[in-house]
Amino acid sequence: MSDQRESVRSNAKYLQNVRPIDPDEICEYVEGNPHPAVVRQHLRELAPELELVERDDGTFVPVEDDPVAPNRGPVERFPAAYEQRLEDLLVERYGVDWHEDATGELLRSTIRRFKRRYLERRPVEYDDDVAAGYAIYHLPGYYAAVQYALDDLAERGLLGRSLRVLDIGAGVGGPALGLCDYLPDDALLDYHAVEPSAAADVLEELLEETGPNVHPTIHPTTVEAFDPAEVGSDGGAAFDPTAPDDGFDLVLACNVLSELEDPAAVLRSALETLAPDGTLLAMAPADKNTSVRLRELERELEDERLWTPAEMGFDETDSDGEVEGAEAAGADDAAARRGRVTVYGPTVRLWPGERPTDRGWTFDVRPDLAVPSFQRKLDEATPADDAEHAPGEFVNVDVQFSTSLLRLDGKRRIDLALETSDWAKMAEMDRHVPNRIDLAAAKLSRSLSDADRDGGDHGGRSNPLFKISDGSESIDHYAVVTSESSLNRPLLEADYGEVCSFERILSLWNDDEEAYNLVVDEETIVDRIG
Questions:
Q1: Which pLDDT band, with edges at 50, 70 and 90, does 232 fall under?
Q2: d(CA 22, CA 329)
Q3: What are phi and psi of 484, to 5 degrees?
């Protein structure tokens, strides 16, 4: 069989830059004339190594070099195919009426229990019932959230069509499925999940609904015990985790860091497996504890030297010559950061040599999803005499999340270097109170005002309020819109993570919140600059 596989490989290599590879043709040149279906299976297994994608007509062609384009529009719902597959799994495990009677009560009590343990910051043990409950409650939101995070890479052309991905603590597969659906049909995904719990069974089931160019491998072990050298050892694409010029194009660490004993060590090890132009995407729920902890980890790892530029394949002069001198002079350009952990986004570093030390609680909020049938069924089947239940308790379609994107090639999503001659610095805000100043900062929240949270308009009982940052602050800063005008409306229209300039913004101190309020009124001019 190995000789047959090698024969298929050699024929595919010969033809891949000549014409589409047709299993019906190759079988004639392989010893023993195997059936085309056998050749097709070999080609599918060899696809990650040879960087081939399978077309609808059954032929194989090289994956295109063009990067993946960003999504257009919001994620509206959890796809019907995954929804049905999950319901089929629930029926198989618990019966046709899985959402009712004793089995429905088991799943509802399981969801309540792991939600309570999460809020108490206690570990959750993932058995079959917890995995099923977790899929019902969390799968749709995580599916959507990762796609919004990937937009930050795709909009800068940094998400390739041929991806080797490591998913740490993959769980039941929300981020994995979101990634699969984000990529176009002609993309190639060599996907490796590390998941030791019963959640891996749900993940495996759902991955069967993905396309032919998704090549999944599930490693049933803890991330601490996982050996990256296993990748490629099963006949897949060769991989040397000790070589910085090889590695994963994308590492996912989504909604798992709060469950690890030493998340910083895990992230550091994961960063060492990145390709030179790869990204580590860490994600956490939007609640205060996990969101702030994510930002603490980001800051702990930032600027650590993992490789020299020369080891990563960059020019030698970037490591010990001009770059060293540039770093000593306080410059913070991309070349000087090569081989160091760099925060790509969504948080910013707009001042050379400055780093934020504020609380760091920042998260994105996107439109709610349509309610999946499995959530609606479980919620509506709750007995009327259940004193704990409020309608919608088991419906979770909010899409709120915190992310951190880390790279080793020095790139940032927004790479500005401000000067104090032009702009006020948040690190020095105490000397600007109570004056009008010019400021540049990223918008790092949706509106936090009571009116907006309650669905009111800008004339409600609270003014639009946004967390903003320039990457130098040690105290939280908020932009408060007290008088909306055409000149300051760009702040309301700006996307999460986008940098705006503020002319004549009023700096005030808020004793109650122990934070700076920067007032945007009729005198303030706001422009979107990045």
A1: low
A2: 58
A3: -75, 140
Task: Supply 225's token pair.
Answer: 């015990």
* Residue from 432, 523, 9 nearest 238 by CA: 9
CB atoms within 10 A of CB 434: 9
Beta carbons within 8 Å of 143's beta carbon, 6+ residues apart: 75, 78, 82, 174, 175, 177, 178, 181
Q: Please list the alpha-helical segments (H only) found in 280-331.
A: 288-301, 322-328
**Amino acid in the structure at residue 176:** A
CB of 214 within 8 A of CB of 191? Answer: yes
Q: Express each pLDDT in 340-367 by its tens digit.
A: 999 999 999 999 999 999 999 999 999 9
What is the spatial distance between Cα 348 and Cα 356, in angstroms, rounded to a whole number? 9
Q: How far apart are CA 185 and CA 216, in angstroms?
A: 15
Residue 348: CB atoms within 10 Å: 26
Residue 286: DSSP 8-state: S
Q: Is 134 helix (H, G, I), strand (E, B) or coil?
A: helix
The residue written with tokens 């060769």 in the block is: 238
For residues 391 and 310, the model is more confident at 391
Residue 312 makes CB contacts below 8 A (sequence gap 6+) with: 244, 245, 276, 338, 339, 408, 409
Nearest CA among 119, 153, 114 for reference residue 135: 114
CA 226 to chain CA centroid, Å, is 21
CA dist., res. 186 & res. 61, Å (int): 9
Specify the residue for token string 């409950």: 133
The mean-pLDDT minimum among 217-231, 304-318, 368-382 falls in 304-318
**CA geometry: angle at 340 spanning 316 and 283, to 5°?**
145
Residues 6+ apart with CB under 8 A from 348: 412, 414, 416, 441, 442, 469, 470, 471, 497, 499
Whether omega before 241 lies within 30 degrees of 0, making that bond cis, reads no
Cα 161 to Cα 176: distance, rounded to the nearest angstrom: 16
Most confident of 10-19, 31-40, 188-197, 242-251: 188-197
Give ∠ CA 94-100-105 in degrees, rounded to 5: 85
169: left (phi over 0), alpha (psi -120 to 50) or beta: left
DSSP string, 417-477: ---TTTS--GGGGGGTTTSEEEEEEEE-SS--SHHHHTT--TTSSS--EEEEE-S--SS-E
Q: What average pLDDT does the segment 63-84 reach?
A: 95
Measure the CA–CA gap between 188 and 161, rounded to whole angstroms.
Answer: 6
> Residue 3: its pLDDT value, please?
81
Q: Kindly indicate the confidence band of residue 321, based on its pLDDT and cuts at 50, 70 and 90.
A: very low
Token output for 504: 């004549």
CA–CA dist 421, 429 (Å, integer): 15
